[in-house]
From TrEMBL:
<dbReference type="GO" id="GO:0003677">
    <property type="term" value="F:DNA binding"/>
</dbReference>
<dbReference type="GO" id="GO:0003700">
    <property type="term" value="F:DNA-binding transcription factor activity"/>
</dbReference>
<keyword id="KW-0238">DNA-binding</keyword>
<dbReference type="InterPro" id="IPR036388">
    <property type="entry name" value="WH-like_DNA-bd_sf"/>
</dbReference>
<dbReference type="InterPro" id="IPR014710">
    <property type="entry name" value="RmlC-like_jellyroll"/>
</dbReference>
<feature type="domain" description="Cyclic nucleotide-binding">
    <location>
        <begin position="22"/>
        <end position="142"/>
    </location>
</feature>
<dbReference type="Pfam" id="PF00027">
    <property type="entry name" value="cNMP_binding"/>
</dbReference>
<dbReference type="InterPro" id="IPR018488">
    <property type="entry name" value="cNMP-bd_CS"/>
</dbReference>
<dbReference type="InterPro" id="IPR012318">
    <property type="entry name" value="HTH_CRP"/>
</dbReference>
<dbReference type="InterPro" id="IPR050397">
    <property type="entry name" value="Env_Response_Regulators"/>
</dbReference>
<protein>
    <submittedName>
        <fullName>Crp/Fnr family transcriptional regulator</fullName>
    </submittedName>
</protein>
<dbReference type="GO" id="GO:0005829">
    <property type="term" value="C:cytosol"/>
</dbReference>
<dbReference type="InterPro" id="IPR000595">
    <property type="entry name" value="cNMP-bd_dom"/>
</dbReference>
<dbReference type="Pfam" id="PF13545">
    <property type="entry name" value="HTH_Crp_2"/>
</dbReference>
<dbReference type="InterPro" id="IPR018490">
    <property type="entry name" value="cNMP-bd_dom_sf"/>
</dbReference>
<keyword id="KW-0804">Transcription</keyword>
<feature type="domain" description="HTH crp-type">
    <location>
        <begin position="156"/>
        <end position="230"/>
    </location>
</feature>
Length: 237
């Protein structure tokens, strides 16, 4: 029997899962079975959730805030691979294959996540084999995006590289049904964004101004409003 507090907590977790694209194909009954397995965690700005080579024992679902996925190059410099938005899952690769973490994840701001331990996650997959297809689809999409980023870094000019970074900052599914553009809150400095794009800070700022003059974006302080997604997409290799 649930105590009222436990029932409310479980209902809240079900609501979280229902709004995560990765879990949207699950039935109400399946969500009800999965929700009690989740644990909640909060992270301060700049707190490390896990580091490269840590054991991969936990899957994360970002509920609020933003986190960055990074590697360190041979000179000790941080390389930002991605910025993850609320609703995204991460850490699933190490959970699935049992190998150590392949990157470091750090909170860019106060963030909350739901977590699922490896054993519970694998048992759930084994008892719901049809869900494995969803997992494969998600991982395939991420691999495709990674290939697109590599191609962009090699083949695109500065405009294409900056466009790729801006489009990657749009939360998954956020563009659908929007007519007034997407408002993207920047958690990174211009220098960090430029490094993600593989251009200098000066080049990044110059390209942003050119996009703004063309009406593709609008900048407002620490936010960028993407007005014409198609214009940016055409810039990529």
């Amino acid at each position: 029997m649930f105590y009222p507090e436990c029932r409310r907590m479980t209902d809240d977790r079900q609501l979280v899962l229902r709004h995560v694209p990765f879990f949207q194909d699950l039935s109400v009954e399946e969500l009800a079975k999965l929700a009690p397995l989740l644990r909640e965690a909060s992270y301060r700005k700049n707190e490390v959730l896990f580091r490269t080579n840590d054991p991969g024992n936990t899957l994360f679902i970002l509920r609020s805030g933003r986190v960055k996925v990074t590697l360190t190059d041979r000179h000790g410099r941080e390389v930002i691979l991605r910025v993850l938005q609320p609703g995204e899952i991460f850490g699933e690769m190490a959970v699935l294959d049992g190998y150590p973490r392949s990157a470091t994840v750090t909170a860019l701001e106060k963030s909350y996540a739901s977590t699922l331990d490896r054993d519970s996650f694998l048992r759930f997959i084994q008892s719901h084999p049809q869900w494995s297809l969803k997992m494969l689809s998600t991982m395939s999409r991420r691999l495709r995006k990674a290939n697109e980023r590599i191609s962009s870094a090699i083949l695109s000019d500065a405009h294409g590289k900056v466009s790729r970074v801006l489009l990657d900052l749009i939360p998954e599914g956020e563009w659908e049904g929007k007519r007034e553009g997407i408002r993207v809150r920047l958690s990174l400095t211009r220098q960090q964004l430029a490094a993600m794009a593989g251009v200098t800070r000066e080049t990044f700022i110059r390209v942003l101004k050119e996009f703004e003059r063309a009406g593709s974006i609008r900048t407002e302080g620490k936010e960028i409003i993407i007005l014409k997604q198609a214009d940016l997409s055409r810039e990529i290799f």
